[in-house]
Amino acid sequence: DWNMPDYITEAIDKIREQVGSDEVILGLSGGVDSSVAAALIHRAIGNQLTCVFVDHGLLRLDEGKMVMDMFAKNLGVKVIRVDAEAQFLGHLAGVSDPEAKRKIIGREFVEVFQVEADKLPNARWLAQGTIYPDVIESAGKGKKGQTIKSHHNVGGLPETLNLKLLEPLRELFKDEVRKLGVALGLPHDMVYRHPFPGPGLGVRILGEVKKDFADLLRRADAIFIEELRNTVFEAAPIEGIDSGEPPRNWYEATSQAFAVFLPVKSVGVMGDGRTYEYVVALRAVQTLDFMTAQWAHLPHALLGKVSNRIINEVRGINRVVYDISGKPPATIEWE
Ligand code: XMP
After folding, report:
1. Does the Cβ of 147 fall within 6 Å of ligand 1?
2. In this protein, which residues make up the domain named GMPS ATP-PPase (predicted)?
3. Of 124, 264, 280, 329, whose CB neighbour count within 10 A is largest?
């Protein structure tokens, strides 16, 4: 049986033993994993930790403000915010292959870190919120021997980055990471936030990433999440889905929910006019371990409301579809 206070004590001892008096930098994405890693490492070594929050222009709506409020203001963690939107979008221009996009985003992250690390001459460690499923999936091979999906935060660092890797969540599953976060005093809503991939909207805009697409997607996604949170959840929860309290709404009753931008135009009507605009797909899944997942049976009325709001409020989108694919054979993300 897993004893949380003992686990935290052990994890803290291990971190202190590993890093000694060195300084550590951590890439804070706003996702659950890096946030819990930051809280754990901050608990262990306090001001020896500096977090780097990279705004790559592929974040959710208001993500930057939320992260800065949570960590810098409330927890007193040292956080450097880097505005790197132009840098990331510049390098992504003209690139449509999913793995190529991940590689670029991963590479730019390393570069941004290197620049920040150079400003911290005592930094010897790069901390990451890598969790156990990331480790397995990156090691997994597809039928033709290719990596199923490369996770930019797994796989070691290039020689040029003179930092050792600190990955205190490497042995944990998602539910354990969440319990750890709560035990470390992070707010429930932050810890039970859906996970967000490191490459962010970069893998939720199919094909080439453009700023206009990201802006549309951010707004559509925020509407979807807001409506999920505004529901009252009445159906019985899936056995074992959340180890804590029963879900209060459809946001809490799903493991991950988001909008995907499809760079495909379809015909619609608005008033007397014909429209020819882009499509947004909604994805909502329930899963225990993110290795397999089922699509969430969201109420039709909820889906209808989200669809109406997105089409009415986000000019440039005239069609919304709902993804009813399980994992496997589909993955949770579309890229
Ligand atoms: P898939 O799409 O493989 O997603 O079913 C499983 C979980 O992993 C997340 N994911 C990523 N996380 N970098 C990350 O940090 C990535 O490149 C990446 N790709 C997928 C995904 O959001 C889901 O929670």
Report:
1. no
2. 2-193
3. 280
Quickly list H helices, the chain.
Answer: 4-19, 32-45, 63-67, 85-92, 98-118, 132-139, 174-183, 188-191, 211-229, 300-313
Tell me the CA end-to-end span of the chain in Å, nearest whole number.
37
pLDDT band at 158 (very low <50, low <70, confident <90, very high): low
User: Which residue from 29, 149, 192 has its CB within 8 A of the most atoms of ligand 1, so it is best to mutate?
Assistant: 149
Looking at the whole model, is its pTM more than 0.95? Answer: no
Residue 196 CA: nearest ligand 1 atom is: 22
State yes or no: 29 annotated in a binding site. yes
User: What does CATH list as the number for 204-322?
Assistant: 3.30.300.10
Q: Is 33 annotated as a binding residue?
A: yes
Q: CATH number for 4-191: choose from 3.30.750.24, 3.40.50.720, 3.40.50.620, 3.40.50.2300.
A: 3.40.50.620
CA of 33 to the centre of ligand 1 (A): 12
Q: Is the CB of 102 under 6 A from ligand 1?
A: yes
- pLDDT-based confidence at residue 155 (cuts at 50, 70, 90): very low
ipTM (interface predicted TM):
0.99
Residue ranges of domains in the chain: 4-191, 204-322
